[in-house]
């Protein structure tokens, strides 16, 4: 009997050991009832526990549990105050999940999960029982503005870091996308060849070009390859989402960069430029761009020429091109030079109008009178505005016959209207010389026109001075010095003359520059004497000078 009792006790203990699981482990149990939002689970050996139904649900889904289901739960303690086992489905799932995830992490395998919450710096992901952190930067290849559509979706993740002790898991969705993208890229790139024409969708537009999706791989269409003409901004030609035909220009096998072109599918207008725009031909174009050094004129789409600042205007020098033309203006230009290699056309704007200096020379030949306003006054003369928007210059020396130009330039002011005579037009140097003093003609030249040096002229005495007498000849003033009044010293007295006397004098000098006539009575007397001597014998033939002069005078009479 005693034996039987011992055996029974041993059996009983054995069954206790068998059926009483250790606290802190995962045990199997059976759902025996569901009530008040809880599942009652029998975990064996008369032990029951309760688990909230929501512990059986995946985030955002309804719990899937029914009476009779076998489930694994975590036994926290064998008995609580109510005499029930304290169990947790969530902790069981977590333990189970950690084991599974550690294996996947070691094998570098992907794991499945669902994003269910937003936290600072990222999101929370349920990996089937374990909660992981998904940093914001690891959600997608490009920054995600709205992660709403990704919430609750079952999708693969890559584990980046795990720490069981701290309960830390960091995952990435981006790593998987990049991997599949790289595979996809490699496949797409493998099917592309340089020179091939493909369809693509404009995905993004920047200052310098557009990114075009060629079906899983992006190519860059640079702004300079969009059209043969100048494109200021890609948005002038393209819109996001538009499907376009492009040519593959270059594929970089290492970086997987693809360069695309649109203009390569159109005819290059430069192929016919030289034939279409011969040198010196005139065409109408549109101003597309203005810079400090000139303006660009489009002759046709894709063909642009530069009008250098020096070729813009005959008269407006050192002026910004923007003061002469404006953007989008239609202008007439002449082709000056074509460089096919550099794809450059040099154009001229001023060549389509006549040279204003040539026109002036035709309309106003030397000697013509002109009128204009004083534009500028400098230390060497006046600048006068003339027809055709050009200037002529009156030099100081051309301002007056009497006195110095420096003395009379002060009489002029900017804006004064001045009349002058054209004295020279130099078309090459773009210079016009004018003279104010020549307006009434040259009175001195007119007065002494028929007179040469050595001639004897009759002058009228206008004033008696100490040093001599003042006389006039044909309206021009002259002065005979005291020493020139007679060859006889005793007769060199000015007072011997009276105002109004007519006197003969010999011209000793004519200076057109100083406008002076040099006169001498003494020279006339000496010349007459010399002549008489030559005519009537020499002074040493015995005849006196008085006899010779007397004879000469007689013959004159």
Looking at how many chains there are and whether they match, the oligomeric state comes to: single chain
| Uncertain regions spanning at least 5 consecutive residues | none
Second CATH tier, the architecture of the largest domain = Beta Barrel
- The fraction of residues assigned to DSSP E strands is 35-45%
Structural class comes to alpha+beta
Give the end-to-end Cα distance, rounded to a whole number of Å.
Answer: 209 Å
Strand order of the largest sheet: 3-2-1-4-5
Name the CATH class of the largest domain: Mainly Beta
- Mean pLDDT equals 78
How many strands, which pairing sense, and closed or not: the largest β-sheet?
5 strands, antiparallel
Write the layout of secondary structure elements.
Blueprint: H1 2-19, E1 25-35, E2 38-42, E3 48-52, E4 70-77, E5 86-88, H2 89-106, E6 111-119, E7 122-126, E8 131-135, E9 154-163, E10 168-172, H3 174-190, E11 197-205, E12 209-213, E13 218-222, E14 243-252, E15 257-261, H4 273-276, E16 282-291, E17 294-300, E18 303-308, E19 330-339, E20 344-348, H5 356-363, E21 369-378, E22 381-386, E23 390-395, H6 405-408, E24 417-426, E25 431-435, H7 443-447, E26 456-464, E27 468-473, E28 476-481, E29 502-511, E30 516-520, H8 521-535, H9 545-556
Parallel strand pairs: 13-15, 18-20, 23-25
Antiparallel strand pairs: 1-2, 1-4, 2-3, 4-5, 6-7, 6-9, 7-8, 9-10, 11-12, 11-14, 12-13, 14-15, 16-17, 16-19, 17-18, 19-20, 21-22, 21-24, 22-23, 24-25, 26-27, 26-29, 27-28, 29-30
Helix pairs in contact: 8-9
Organism: Nereida ignava
Domain S1 motif: 24-90, 108-174, 195-263, 280-350, 367-437, 454-522
Keywords: Repeat, Ribonucleoprotein, Ribosomal protein, RNA-binding
């Amino acid at each position: 009997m005693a034996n039987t009792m011992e055996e029974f006790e041993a059996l009983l203990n054995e069954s206790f050991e068998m059926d009483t699981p250790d606290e802190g482990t995962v045990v199997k149990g059976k759902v025996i009832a569901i009530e008040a939002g809880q599942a009652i689970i029998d975990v064996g050996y008369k032990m029951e526990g309760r688990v909230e139904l929501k512990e059986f649900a995946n985030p955002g889904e309804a719990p899937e549990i029914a009476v009779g289901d076998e489930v694994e739960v975590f036994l926290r303690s064998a008995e609580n105050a109510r005499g029930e086992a304290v169990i947790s489905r969530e902790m069981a799932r977590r333990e189970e999940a950690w084991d599974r995830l550690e294996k996947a992490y070691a094998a570098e395998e992907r794991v499945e999960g669902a994003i269910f919450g937003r936290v600072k710096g990222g999101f929370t992901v349920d990996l089937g029982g374990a909660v992981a952190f998904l940093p914001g930067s690891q959600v997608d290849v490009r920054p995600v503005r709205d992660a709403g559509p990704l919430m609750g979706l079952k999708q693969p993740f890559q584990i980046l870091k795990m720490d069981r002790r701290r309960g830390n898991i960091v995952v990435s969705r981006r790593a998987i996308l990049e991997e599949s993208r790289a595979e996809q890229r490699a496949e797409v790139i493998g099917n592309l060849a340089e020179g091939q024409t493909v369809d693509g969708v404009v995905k993004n537009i920047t200052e310098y070009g557009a990114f075009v999706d060629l079906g899983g791989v992006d190519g860059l269409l640079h702004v300079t390859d969009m059209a043969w003409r100048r494109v200021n901004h890609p948005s002038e030609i393209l819109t996001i989402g538009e499907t376009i035909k492009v040519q593959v220009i270059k594929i970089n096998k290492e970086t997987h960069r693809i360069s695309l072109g649109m203009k390569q599918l159109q005819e290059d207008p430069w192929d016919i430029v030289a034939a279409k725009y011969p040198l010196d031909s005139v065409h109408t174009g549109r101003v597309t761009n203005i810079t400090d050094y000139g303006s660009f004129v489009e002759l046709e789409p894709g063909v642009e020429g530069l009008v250098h600042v020096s070729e813009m205007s005959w008269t407006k020098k050192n002026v910004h091109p923007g003061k002469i033309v404006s953007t989008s203006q239609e202008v007439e230009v002449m082709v000056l030079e074509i460089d096919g290699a550099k794809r450059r056309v040099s154009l001229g704007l001023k060549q389509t109008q006549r040279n204003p200096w040539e026109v002036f020379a035709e309309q106003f030949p030397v000697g013509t009178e002109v009128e204009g306003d004083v534009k500028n006054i400098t230390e060497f003369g006046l600048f006068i505005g003339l027809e055709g928007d050009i200037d002529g210059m009156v030099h100081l020396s051309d301002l007056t016959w009497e006195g110095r130009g420096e003395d009379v330039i002060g009489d002029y002011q900017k804006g004064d209207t001045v009349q002058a005579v054209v004295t020279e037009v130099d078309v090459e140097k773009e210079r016009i010389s004018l003279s104010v003093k020549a307006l009434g003609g040259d009175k001195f030249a007119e007065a002494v026109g028929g007179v040469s040096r050595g001639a004897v002229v009759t002058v009228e005495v206008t004033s008696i001075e100490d040093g001599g007498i003042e006389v006039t000849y044909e309206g021009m003033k002259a002065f005979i010095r005291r020493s020139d009044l007679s060859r006889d010293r005793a007769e060199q007295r000015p007072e011997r003359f009276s105002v109004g006397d007519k006197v003969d004098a010999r011209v000793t000098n004519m200076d057109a520059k100083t406008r002076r006539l040099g006169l001498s009575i003494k020279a006339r007397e000496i010349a007459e004497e010399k002549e008489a001597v030559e005519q009537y014998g020499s002074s040493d033939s015995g005849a006196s000078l008085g006899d010779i002069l007397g004879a000469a005078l007689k013959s004159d009479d």
